[in-house]
């Protein structure tokens, strides 16, 4: 494949050549969309085994189709986690990059900079991709909430939605004239509240009986819903809580309190049944958003829509069950030996917290006590202290006065003075006191460090050569951040360097911890593997 070089006067074009001959030319709105599509094509070719034959072009191609020789600007590497994605997900990725300039900068820096692959970059943003689909409006065009009391022919599919069995009969063996004739006759018989007469006519006409009897499709749907109810739910505990079981409540003449023979029960329909079914259909909404003139066309479109909806609902239910089902042998141990990694999304939390840490730096001559005791030693020390208090009493204060005064001053005077000196008012922090350029650079570096640290720590333990290569790429990218942070500190005025140092220090600490872990892990693997390359068999 070939593409237009960014920065040229030609529009962003992508030329895909076929093995059988011929080609397809795609024109994009901007070069960002072109780069994303090119990455997708590259991963698709690598997945199919044709990556060695693919060539990505850096030379511009004119709109008339004149092509020139191109050179590959990125080596094709097959990664085990690369997957072919759907066009819908690709469109969603492009949309997110357009709307989020920060995400766009990270994508350009790490993906186009050959530090991360497309799948690696988006693997940490599954919630973002799922959340965008959740924000889409799921509301469909609905029916009017009014009951169908003045029956007349309709082509919006409301009757078919209310009565699925009638919908099925209309599709199978009814003309439009017979349908409306029998439908209005059935509605008339129901309005008379005469179940005996309805049963008599239903016995003579099988097609009319479909309109008069209870809807078997709705009954089956209710039974399926009951089977899907949580088996641990105690439904008997709630029985009788509704108002219908209390005296002087409910609609007396809705038909539910009238006595009829059991053999004619299936031909009786109460007003509450109609009301509940109407409410259910209104909440479900219309599955056909356009008005069709032909009732048969409406019925066929509704049937196809219901079939697709049932398939999607079944697949979503299976996916939800698979996500919620836990496999014990695949679960991590409940007792973690270390505290779980927590990288906050908003870097301002780290910057604002530095105001609290300034008290530690301003304490002159304060002793920093660091203790490392085992649980047995700590327990023994506690028992000894308790025994001493029981024997001697609290003759001395629990906390030394000079220590208490030092802590109190650090938590009040130093923090308050730091706010007023650095932020000019109590509402501003250290970050807001810096120039906008320096502030944006610090935020960008901290967001980049967060992204790299996520991929770095998620790659451990290193068990494959792919993870080793990924960690090496991420480590090299993190090592380049150190001189950039030093440049920021040198570029600000001298009176602001102390504040910048306070903001940069947690970045250095996070990077130092990652490099220390990398070196220690590298030494362990080298000791185990001997002279084997990269520590792998």
TrEMBL record:
Q: Tell me one GO biological process term.
A: DNA-templated transcription
Gene Ontology cellular-component terms listed: transcription factor TFIIH core complex
Recorded coiled-coil stretches: none
Which residue ranges does the record annotate as region Disordered?
52-75
What are the residue boundaries of the BSD domain, all occurrences included? 79-133
Annotated Gene3D superfamilies: 6.10.140.1200
Feature: compositional bias, Basic and acidic residues: 52-66
Q: Which PANTHER family does this entry report, sorted A to Z?
A: TRANSCRIPTION INITIATION FACTOR IIH-RELATED (PTHR12856)
| Name the record gives this protein | General transcription and dna repair factor iih subunit tfb1-1
Tell me the organism: Quercus suber (Cork oak)
